[in-house]
Specification:
Layout (H helix, E strand, L loop, with lengths): L1 H27 L10 E10 L2 E5 L2 H4 L2 E5 L4 E6 L2 E9 L5 E8 L10 H10 L2 E5 L2 E5 L5 E5 L4
Antiparallel strand pairs: 1-2, 1-3, 1-9, 3-4, 4-5, 5-6, 7-8, 8-9
Length: 150
């Protein structure tokens, strides 16, 4: 009888290991990636086509933010509008941000709210270094953000 139980126990142990590994890997898609926690404020924008770069003044950066949550959602402040988004990441630094519902307030002339949301939806990789976040697009254009409170 003992010989019949051992294969069953091995199979049960393997199944449990697979379930635990799947849960851990699923958690890697969002939690523990360095994104969750701070409200990230845009500090600089660099585009490759056309070649352009600009620094966002501290007071302006408060109008363009993104906050990532552990559950795969993100809250975007795009000037005078709020946008709900979903996101996924991989351990290798890939990211997909998918904007969802948005408020439809009429922002002041010169608002960069819509271009900010469009830029976020086009990013495909990220890197976090302390309080600095870089979101890159396929053409190597990038958004530079800070998680510092001031």
């Amino acid at each position: 009888m003992t010989h019949r139980i051992r294969p069953f126990l091995r199979l049960a142990a393997a199944a449990l290991t697979l379930v635990i590994a799947t849960a851990v890997l699923a958690g890697c898609n969002v939690a523990g990636n360095g994104l969750v926690g701070p409200t990230w404020r845009v500090t600089a924008v660099v585009t490759t086509v056309p070649a352009w770069q600009g620094v966002v003044p501290a007071a302006e950066s408060l109008r363009y933010t993104i906050t990532f949550a552990n559950d795969g959602t993100a809250a975007i402040k795009a000037d005078c509008n709020q946008v709900t988004a979903s996101y996924t990441t991989t351990p290798g630094g890939s990211i997909t941000i998918t904007p969802g519902p948005s408020t439809l307030a009429a922002c002041p002339e010169g608002s960069m709210g819509q271009p900010f949301v469009q830029a976020l939806s086009a990013v495909n990789s990220y890197s976090v270094n302390g309080e600095e976040l870089i979101l890159r697009q396929p053409d190597n254009s990038r958004l530079e953000l800070t998680g510092r409170s001031n």
